[in-house]
Design goal:
CATH superfamily: STAS domain
CATH architecture: 2-Layer Sandwich
Radius of gyration: 15 Å
Helix content: 40-55%
Amino acid sequence: MDRIPILKVGDCLLVTIQVDMHDELAMSLQEDLTMQIAKHASRGVLIDISSLEIVDSFIGRMLANIAAMSRVLDAQTVVTGMQPAVAITLVELGMSLPGIRTALNVERGMELLREFIGRDAEAEDVDGAEE
């Protein structure tokens, strides 16, 4: 698989990683995802990693980079489906994954994104009313 599919769901993007991630695939996902965020003016990104059994430091950094780039492009990132072994590995590697919120499953992840997007919209309404 040369690319990981990115699905548009409303004003969010859904990425379900169903294959083992290697460095080149992670780099292309980062590039593809940032292009799709900008193209669709997406407000949220949900990355489901429930099929990943192993996450090394490079993949962990790539997830953190994706979240940082998403924030710069005005989108929130939620990672769902992290297996306990992956969580343990990330903690043992000392990776905190700043800017990434997590949820146990895709359904809860979408709820989190909706909450964040709603809060952002309310804040924009308040800022606009003050001017």
